[in-house]
Amino acid sequence: MSIYDFTVRDASGNDVSLSAYKGKVLLIVNTATGCGFTPQYEGLQNMYEKFSEKGFEILDFPCNQFLGQAPGTEEEIVAFCKGRFGVTFKQFAKINVNGKNEIPLYTYLKEQQGGKMGSRIKWNCTKFLVDREGNVVNRFAPTDKPEDIEKFVEQLL
User: Fold this and answer.
1) Could you read off the pLDDT tens digit of each residue along the chain, which spans 157 residues?
2) Phi and psi angles of residue 69, each rounded to the nearest 5 degrees, phi first
3) Helices (DSSP H) in the chain: which residue ranges?
4) Which terminus of the chain has fewer CB atoms gathered within 10 Å of its CB, N or C?
5) Which domains does the chain have, with CATH numbers?
6) Where in the sequence numbering do the catalytic residues fall?
């Protein structure tokens, strides 16, 4: 099993095989539009603009599991992110990251990088870094700002 074996649904309802991202460095993040960490969208967008031409992609998965902080539809979430933060990286359908309805991708990510943070996703803006070969190489806490993890992205690029 690898990251490239998963298919997820994008914000428009289309199935997307993660095999389309082979050879790219990925940052996979669960987000919310009404959270104290929502301003990280600005840092994520800046990092995307800085590194996208070098083979870097951000995969944004809205999640409403933490105090209902992503209550909108996919269309509303995309409009908010584009309008408020100028987001141009790929946004996906709203998901569950924990529990019986969590998507298989997140089960896999947590199995690969449970570590000191445990296997559960604790909050919005948990980030997983994937290298060009599809290995999940790091997990960052919600409090780790995009600016603080740029050095890890640069090392993989």
Assistant:
1) 899 999 999 999 999 999 999 999 999 999 988 777 788 899 999 999 999 999 999 999 999 888 666 778 888 888 888 988 999 999 999 998 998 999 999 999 998 876 545 577 888 889 999 999 999 999 999 999 999 999 999 999 9
2) -90, 5
3) 40-51, 74-85, 104-112, 146-156
4) N
5) 3-156 (3.40.30.10)
6) 35
Q: How far is CA 154 from CA 35, 40, 55, 59, 112, in A?
A: 27, 19, 11, 17, 21
According to DSSP, the β-strands at 56-62 and 90-91 are parallel
Distance CA 89, CA 33 (A): 15
CA distance 110 to 136: 9
